[in-house]
Specification:
Belongs to the phenylalanyl-tRNA synthetase beta subunit family. Type 1 subfamily. With 820 residues, the chain is α+β, with helices and mostly antiparallel strands. The protein has 21 helices and 41 strands. It has 6 domains: 65 residues, Phenylalanyl-tRNA Synthetase, Chain B, domain 1 (2-Layer Sandwich), CATH 3.30.56.10; 120 residues, Nucleic acid-binding proteins (OB fold (Dihydrolipoamide Acetyltransferase, E2P), Beta Barrel); 203 residues, Phenylalanyl-tRNA Synthetase, Chain B, domain 3, CATH 3.50.40; 65 residues, Phenylalanyl-tRNA Synthetase, Chain B, domain 1 (2-Layer Sandwich), CATH 3.30.56.10; 208 residues, 2-Layer Sandwich (BirA Bifunctional Protein, domain 2), CATH 3.30.930; 89 residues, 2-Layer Sandwich (Alpha-Beta Plaits), CATH 3.30.70.
Length: 820
């Protein structure tokens, strides 16, 4: 919201220096994005007088002028001399007072005034029109000032248009502050100063009653809670008065004509958007009236808006129609070209209405059409003020457009919303604020904000909040207003009262930090990627959507490839790998702990489980004297094992992953990770080359992804204590030849099952394949077995019996044989 300091001065007493007010705004919660000087861009633009006007020697439509700018142009002796300027305008004469831009001026649109030659004659400036100075659209001729206008004065000083504009960032819960009146009320409360706001009023109403000219119908009050219409006749379209143009410019708009400028001015003044329809372009029905119908748009209905673009509408959009059939405006967003005000307009239908904030927001974003009106409607416009604002605009039409205001106002208001009445307890305010705020301060500042405050029982106050403050509905809302106006910086910080309470991280928080520490200790660097994702990420990866819900789509994505929330962390990490490799980093080891988003058809909120995902690509950084080796499956598996060991997850198993289920991983180089009770925690494996190519990665990548929820649930703070063995063990090596289909896990389980109580350890140390010595389709797996008894030293006979029994059982169960 651009707050004109000169305009604000007309409504409330403010400090002489705008910086003092800026500091108060920031102190009380209104962020200020910047402060600028309006008129500063018109430096080197002065009032001047035409001393002489002669035809250009080489042109039939240009003039060679001598223009006096007073002491702003002098000769070498310091005496004022005129400027020679070539001018193409036809509307001036010798002796006229005009506006001249001298060399060095930079006009709106970054037009730089330099010494130039026009048809061979030198020109040392430019005589200016309104459009060239950004003060209007009049380009038919240069500005002619009154005969008594001084010469050599800065034009902004002459106009009194040198102004300071404070650009405030208004939060969505404060629609009242999207207006000059609202900011005046806010300033009044911040500075504890009274307001002196004077609003225009209609001097005379004449002509037919508005009810005899216009009829309004609202089909659905959900779309439009209130609609008012006034009629003004015999409007004279033309340039706006200087005061009106200046204020429209200060608010951030460009003056168009008096009708458009009045509606814009009133919107900036009150926060209520208005729209002016050309009454003559609406069809007169059999009863002699124009019928305005507010309804939902029909699917596929077309409307050409004022920006001359044809829009395709949907049923969740609201339109203003001529008689219920022809759309003439997109409600709350932009008017239609078919009812536009133009030079032929004489009678105007003035709309002042409120529309559903949610529907306006969706319409604006779906059509990528944002306007000053839609910004205000999205934040909720005060329906109670529609008629009053319409009267203000009608008064300005009367003043600035020489219009006649028809008596009466057509007002359709199906369900008036009462102002909220809230009980506020001063003791409660002080208890929550932690400050000794006087009762008088609370009551006075709330009154400054427009609240009606009355004493109630037990020292409380009954507060009626203004209807333009939708954020004031509860006692705590009033407390927030009191505290921010008191000043949070003036409240002495104190520790919360607590007995026998010590702060600290929860067990889960400690474990999550341990996950990060362990992965960093394994050589991985933590990263954070976007939670926004491309809609094609899973298909590019080759990952099935099964178990990952439906996509959570973003209504208005900033870029096309971030149109939904991610359902896997892996695509983001692969993009990071590609970026690093493209920039010469030949070893990438990254991990991320973050949320993914699984949507559901019948749930308003998606599931947001957390995962830890890691990627390894390139070579291992070992000792400087050793040869670097590329990361492979077992590096990623080792990281996972180290992590599970650090968290004390027991009974961990790795099972070969089904290629049909894990399409994004290379077959034979991927495994599922199971924990205690057979719970699937995640996967680890080499990423499939097709997936890597889809993400622009041209090097092998191994990756893993584990559920954080599973890790936290299966982790143990401590493990059962096991005594250190005091008796020696006996080691025996066993090599068994089995079919290729028999996995190490299956064979190891058979060995442990057959070993009984004496078998204390099993470790694979060799896998050997040879078509001649082992056999085609066969492999030899060699294990180191350790036998030990807890209460005595084993004899060779005991070990032989136990080992023979183990070999027999394993061979029968697996169809294998002992390799000789």
């Amino acid at each position: 919201m651009r707050v004109s300091y000169e305009w604000l001065k007309d409504m409330v007493d403010v400090p002489e220096d705008p910086k003092d007010l800026v500091n108060e705004y920031i102190r009380t919660g209104t962020e200020v994005e910047g402060v600028e000087r309006v008129g500063a861009d018109l430096d080197h633009v002065y009032t001047a007088q035409v001393v002489s006007k002669k035809p250009h020697p080489d042109s039939d439509h240009m003039w060679l002028c001598q223009v006096s700018v007073g002491d702003k142009n002098v000769d070498e002796n310091g005496n004022p001399v005129p400027l020679q300027i070539v001018c193409g305008a036809q509307n001036f004469n010798e002796g006229d007072h005009i506006v001249t831009a001298m060399i060095g001026a930079v006009l709106p649109g970054d037009v730089k005034i330099k010494k130039s030659k026009l048809r061979g004659v030198e020109s040392f400036g430019m005589n200016c029109s309104e459009r060239e100075l950004g003060l209007g659209n009049d380009h038919d001729g240069i500005i002619i000032l009154p005969p008594d206008a001084p010469v050599g004065m800065l034009y902004t000083d002459y106009l009194g248009s040198s102004d300071t504009v404070i650009d405030c960032e208004i939060t969505p819960n404060r629609p009242d502050c999207l207006s000059m009146v609202g900011m005046a009320v806010e300033t009044s409360a911040v500075l504890d100063e009274g307001t002196h706001i004077t609003l225009p009023s209609i001097k005379e109403e004449k002509g037919p009653d508005a009810h005899d000219l216009v009829d309004v119908q609202i089909d659905d009050a959900e779309f439009c809670p209130r609609y008012t219409a006034r009629v003004v006749r015999n409007v004279k379209i033309g340039p706006s008065p200087e005061w009106l143009a200046r204020r429209v410019i200060a608010a951030g708009s460009r003056p168009i004509n008096n009708v458009v400028d009045v509606t814009n001015y009133v919107m900036y003044l009150t926060g209520q958007p208005l729209h002016a329809f050309d009454l003559g372009k609406l069809q007169k029905r059999e009863d002699g009236k124009r019928h305005v119908v507010v309804r939902a748009a029909r699917d596929g209905e077309l409307l050409t808006t004022l920006d001359e673009k044809e829009r395709t509408l949907t049923p969740d959009m609201c339109v203003i129609t001529d008689g219920g059939e022809t759309p003439i405006a997109l409600a709350g967003v932009m008017g239609g070209l078919n009812s536009e005000i133009d030079e032929t307009t004489t009678d105007v239908l003035l709309e002042s209405a409120t529309f559903s904030a949610g529907h306006i927001s969706r319409t604006s974003r779906n059509l990528d059409l944002m306007s000053e009106a839609s910004i205000r409607y999205e934040r909720q416009v005060d329906g109670a003020g529609c008629a009053d604002v319409s009267n203000i605009a009608a008064a300005l039409f009367e003043e600035c457009c020489s219009a006649e205001v028809c008596p009466g106002i057509v007002d359709v208001y199906p369900g008036p919303v009462p102002a909220p009445v809230i009980t506020m307890r001063p003791a409660r305010v002080r208890a929550l604020a932690g400050a000794d705020i006087p009762d008088d301060f609370m009551a006075a500042r709330l009154k400054r904000l427009g609240c009606k405050v009355e004493p109630a029982e037990n020292g409380a106050y009954t507060v009626t909040a203004p209807t333009n403050r939708p954020d004031l509905t509860r006692e705590v809302d009033l407390i927030e207003e009191v505290v921010r106006l008191w000043g949070e910086g003036d409240i002495t910080p104190t520790l919360p009262a607590a007995r026998n309470h010590a702060g600290g991280l929860t067990v889960d928080q400690q474990r999550i930090r341990k996950i990060g520490r362990t992965l960093r200790a394994c050589g991985l660097s933590e990263t954070t990627t976007y939670c926004f994702a491309d809609a094609n990420d899973l298909s590019k990866l080759g990952m099935s959507e099964e178990g990952r819900g439906i996509p959570v789509k973003i209504i208005n994505p900033l870029v096309a490839d971030q149109a939904e929330m991610r359902r896997s962390i892996l695509p983001g990490l692969l993009r990071s790998v590609a970026y690093n490799l493209d920039h010469g980093v030949d070893a990438v080891a990254l991990y991320e702990i973050g949320r993914v988003f699984f949507g559901h058809e019948n749930k308003s909120q998606p599931d947001e489980p957390s995962f830890v995902c890691g990627v390894l690509s390139g070579h291992r950084d070992d000792e400087w004297c050793q040869k670097f080796e590329d990361y492979d499956f077992f590096d990623a598996k080792g990281v996972v094992e180290q992590l599970l060991s650090a968290l004390r997850v027991t009974k961990v198993r790795f099972k070969a992953a089904d290629p049909q289920t894990y399409g994004w991983l290379q077959p034979g180089r991927a495994a599922e990770v199971y924990g205690n009770k057979g719970e699937l925690m995640g996967w680890v494996g080499n990423v499939h080359p097709k997936a890597l190519k889809a993400f622009g990665v041209d090097a092998p990548v191994v990756a893993f992804e584990l559920s954080v929820e599973s890790l936290l649930r299966l982790a143990h703070r401590e493990l059962p204590y096991v005594d250190v063995p005091t008796l020696p063990g006996v080691s025996v090596d066993l090599a068994i030849v089995v079919d290729e289909s028999v996995t190490c896990e299956q064979l190891e389980q058979r060995i442990k099952s057959a070993g009984g109580k004496l078998l204390s350890d099993v470790r694979l140390f060799d896998v050997y394949r040879d078509p001649v010595r082992v056999g085609m389709g066969k492999k030899s797996m060699a294990f180191s077995l350790t036998y030990r008894s807890a209460d005595h030293t084993l004899t060779s006979e005991e070990v032989d019996r136990a080992h023979k029994k183990l070999v027999d059982k394993v061979c029968r169960a697996t169809g294998g044989e002992v390799r000789g």
